[in-house]
What does this fold into?
Amino acid sequence: MRYLRVMLQQALKVSGRSASPLLKWVERCVEGTAGGAARQTDTHQLRTLDEMPGPSVLSFAWDLFGKRGLSRLHELQLEGYQRYGPMWKASFGPILTVHVAEPQLIEQVLRQEGQHPMRSDLSSWKDYRKLRGHGYGLLTAEGDEWQSVRSLLGKHTLRPKAVEAYDDTLNAVVTDLLRKLRTRRQQHPRGIVTDVSTEFYRFGLEGISSVLFESRLGCLEPVVPVETERFIQSINTMFVMTLLTMAMPRWMHQLFPTPWDTFCQCWDYMFQFAKGHIDQRLKTEAEKVARGEEIEGRYLTYFLSRTSMPMKSVYSNVTELLLAGVDTISGTLSWSLYELSRHPDIQESLRAEVKAVLGDRLIPGAADVARMPLLKAVVKEVLRLYPVIPANARVVPGRDIKVGGYLLPKNTLITLCQFATSRDPAHFPNPHSFVPQRWLTRDEGHHPYASLPFGVGKRSCIGRRIAELELYLAIARILTHFDVKPDPEGGVVRPMTRTLLVPESEINLMFVER
Ligand code: HEM
It folds into this structure.
């Protein structure tokens, strides 16, 4: 039935009637049978978890560990859908999780998430904090603690006006990135910057630090400070170890201590790094106050430290914000340039859009990028194809919930298969192709929950506006200065899961000075 829907949709779209009422009527009729699992609750008895299909514990463990499944977790979503339909259960080590791979069902879950949504247990992250006596940051806090930090931070990160104020700060970081790209291309006989993601990790860290501390770390200087490299390396290793430590029952940590020990060492360094920068920044402020100077901070750490939040929470929040701002930006910027280099026509149209808005100016501001619809469409399309968080999650504590005709007991971990939905031909024709134009028409024809790279609702990404601004400013300026081409000797780069979705191999790009 699902394929009938896809064929009907595509046939109508090919005939140029994508926005027609006919398509909507067909979709409604077909969804009444294929996507209507939810509606079964009205007429049928709810099914239990025992009746849900899914691989046996052994076969899933074999998929994960025997067939490199940990790095292919995003592909296992597509395979799971093919084998079991839109909902299936699987045991990820000691954790039983229900996979949900249709936007209608994801919407049902998110509409029942309650006042204080819980993403997932993130057991190993929380275990580490308990072990060391650290506080929780926004990523790991729950309940009232989460709510109060969210309200505080949201004032400075979610309001458009507050975020626009960061455009000068971020543009200064983009200026350094351009200089670094120029140096790197000059060092290569064919103007190629190898492994662009490494440079973009540094850009991500420099960007989020400038927003958090209003001071620079020097990540884009010719000689990168050792501690920032070590911080980035700690994030990478910690993400690899997250999946491993969560897939292993706790008693195994003693039998095979390396993953857990490495995981803790990475976090130790990240907390230490963040604390060092916060203490340094606050000391400078205190000295200014002592000299009777006015302090006028516009950076997040300053806002946090002026609240009644205990310092322990300031440290953990800043650590988690630093962490959240690195891989997310690096991955999305790498894939954006990778796809633009392979689609020179789209790159040219985007450059024309930037020029039309900027005129003679070279540096856009927040108000300028807001007038660049193709730029926004490119980032949306990149995040559809390569959602940084390929599988989001929710746990609903306290009560059972109904999803797709099943009754899910309270505390069930529900995996929201965003990678599968955003590559679903029922919602995105030609789903594996880079087609930013699909976001430019008013009636985009897909379910609103089909591509949710930043999540949705109360627990959605708090850094979304900052991330988008940073990406828009960087892409617009890179294209103003360079033609970006693929490395003629490079091949196709595929994504892989490392908790987050990252490029599986190096992305090498040719930067031609304009
Ligand atoms: C392309 C860039 C980014 C993407 C795709 C992204 C995506 C996400 C997603 C999917 C979530 C989970 C939402 C949910 O559970 O519904 C999330 C949460 C979060 N993100 Fe981002 N993110 C990005 C950049 C950033 C940046 C730059 C920051 C820091 C300024 C950040 C900070 C956070 C935090 C703190 C949370 C937890 C929010 C909460 O639990 O209340 N993110 N992000």
In short: Residues 204 and 329 are 5 Å apart (CA to CA). Residues 1-43 have pLDDT under 50 and may be disordered. DSSP finds 22 helices and eleven strands in the chain.
